[in-house]
Amino acid sequence: MSGSNGRSVGRRTFVLGTAAAAGTAALGGPLAGAAAAAGFGWSDDGSHYVVDTGADLVFKVSKTNGDLTSLVYKGTEYQGYGGKNSHVESGLGTSAVTIGQSGSTILISVAYGTLKHYYAARVGENNVYLWTNKADASVTASRYIVRVNAGRFLNDEPDSYTYTTSTVESADVFAKPDGQTRSKHYSGLRVMDYDYIGWTSGGVGLWIVRSNHEKASGGPFYRSLLRHQSADGGGLYEILHYGENQTEAERFGLQGPYVIAFTDGGAPSSSLFAGTLTTPWADALGISGYVAAGGRGKVAGVGISGRDTAFPYTVGLANPAAQYWGPARSSDGHFSIGGVLPGTYTLTVYKGELSVHTTSVTVSAGATTTLNTIAVPSSDDPSNAPAIWRIGDWSGSPSGFKNAELMTYAHPSDVRAASWTGNVVIGGGNETSAFPAYLWKDVNSGLLVYFKLTAAQAAAAHTLRIGVTTAYANGRPRVVVNDTWTSAVPSPPAQPSTRSLTVGSYRGNNHTFTYSVPASAWLTDTSRYNVLRIDVVSGSGTTGFLSAGTAVDAIDLLA
Asked: Over the stretch 262-316, which tens digit does the pLDDT of each residue have?
């Protein structure tokens, strides 16, 4: 459910980048030759520091507040819309701004209270390198936003609302005349799915190459806004700590580098990607919180046994100070995660997006922590439990359910969405695709599942399980069997308190509700269908798609 790596609109192409999609001929990396470096240097125009990279990029930083006020590439200004600059959050206010040069590197330092922010330019490159150090919560810093002039990269992608004519929800979800919905939230991507994001048009590409997000929150499957486009202009984001549907506390410290990269229209150089980019030239610049490669460690795993080979596996490392992740090799589960800050981490093995094993690992500077094969116990994967019937599979996401893919880049009211109502018959072969990915109290509560039991099955009690991936307004399922047995109302699990289901994200805290259904609840006539009713209950929420709701991972009746 990761979305596409590239989409085209007319002659203009919008790209969400991965390492595999990066072009080898991109101009994001260093440019060779004396001519490229001829103009390299900086000046002070009284109100700004003006940096010429010696390539095709000249940028300005305000001496007052550290805003990026100008991005001129090949003589064309790209910065700014609505009179706003590019900056941390919505601008830091009066700051101490200094500049220095060390050989082929120019560094601008911005200090605002306990927060420190940096811009760096390298000779002959069309890139701006950025770091942001959040020391504590005294300064709000959820993002860095690059604001782009109107009309530079017009497009009609899911996160572009240039051509919308009405508001659907909360002044940030909109609709086009044809009923398709658009919002800045609809990137359709998890953080692990992209290396860069931006636009290309007319032989110019403008990108943000993301950092490794070690000081961000939410893990590898987190979804948030990445960019937007409107009639007023566009924005590209590096997420520092985003609160929408967030499952973790804010982390503090230095995040970066992330890179503003201009190209001739191609993808940015893969040498800029997190996991590939090395910055030995920054080691001695005095960046607050900077830890060089030699001060970091690595975790390598021989393999993972007990895997379900139908699913991809990811290994995550997390503690209150940092987060990292990497894919497990499909053949044997081998994994390697480098650039890790020293410390003790919880290592989590994910089947799809579902945690199926955790352990602890300690990382030391300059060393590799090698782990023997990790065995995932059969009991840790709920899919291994024998079931009479099952809707979906236990993967930690609503993948395969009705409307699941669309909901990462559209609103539930979108004209492309199939009906959110409709009951399901077990044995029909389309149980998962017919079952809605999301359930709401005010939209499709009371959905029915029809199924038959053998005489032996009907003579015994059974456990019903409903797995969810997030919830809005404490929405949770209460079940009724054959109109004769009703479960208790379960307690709501810990979930994010913000919008989720309507802003492109099902990613919250995976939770399994279990219901012990007595034998007396089943029909003894084996020719008849038992009827399971699933109600969404909560005392919170409003109406429609903002009523209490939840996202479904899997539903099964255990043998």
From this structure: 999 999 999 999 999 999 999 999 999 999 999 999 999 999 999 999 999 999 9
Determine if the pTM surpasses 0.90: yes
pLDDT score recorded for residue 37:
67
Q: What is d(CA 198, CA 249) in angstroms, rounded to the nearest whole number? A: 28
Interatomic CA distance for residues 428 and 434, integer angstroms: 10
Q: What is the DSSP letter of 36?
A: H
Q: How far apart, in whole angstroms, are the C-alpha atoms of residue 361 and residue 451?
A: 45
Condensed to tens digits (0 to 9), the pLDDT of residues 413-441 reads 999 999 999 999 999 999 999 999 999 99
Q: Is the peptide bond before 257 cis (omega within 30 degrees of 0)?
A: yes
Beta bridge partners of 532: 449, 481
Under the banding of pLDDT at 50, 70 and 90, the label for residue 82 is confident
Q: Which amino acid is at 84?
A: K
Residues 37, 42, 43, 45, Cα dihedral to 10°: 110
Q: Is the C-alpha dihedral spanning 522, 525, 529, 531 positive or negative?
A: negative
What is the CB-side half-sphere exposure of residue 482 using CA atoms within 13 A? 18
Nearest Cα residue to 196 out of 110, 273, 275, 106: 273
Tokens of 383: 């899919």
Query: What DSSP line would sit under 84-111, residue for residue?
Result: B-BEETT---S-EEEEEEETTEEEEEEE
